[in-house]
Design brief:
Structural class: mainly beta
Radius of gyration: 13 Å
Strand content: 35-45%
């Protein structure tokens, strides 16, 4: 099954999201987080992660993910190579 991701969308300076499409019909949103020590970005869908918290928190276990923080507009500006520049498929 193919996943298609949109370019990052900033709702506020502290919130960066993407749209994710799975196959032909399912579309969801995911908030982007970045690792503290590694230059990687992770997308967390609202269905599985508390997205209104300071750090991502698993809705399944209630555990905070301390090695991550939410991506910001400053991250987009400072590290553009970490984020997609156009819609892409994985």
């Amino acid at each position: 099954m193919m996943l298609t991701f949109s370019m990052p969308i900033a709702l506020t300076p502290d919130q960066v999201w993407i749209f994710v499409q799975c196959g032909d019909t399912v579309i969801s949103c995911a908030r982007l987080a970045t690792y503290l020590e590694v230059p990687e970005v992770v997308a967390f869908p609202e269905e599985f992660t508390a997205t209104n918290t300071i750090v991502p928190i698993s809705k399944l276990t209630g555990e905070p993910m301390h090695s991550l923080r939410w991506a910001t507009v400053a991250d987009l500006a400072d590290h553009p190579c970490r984020f997609p520049k156009a819609d892409w498929t994985a």
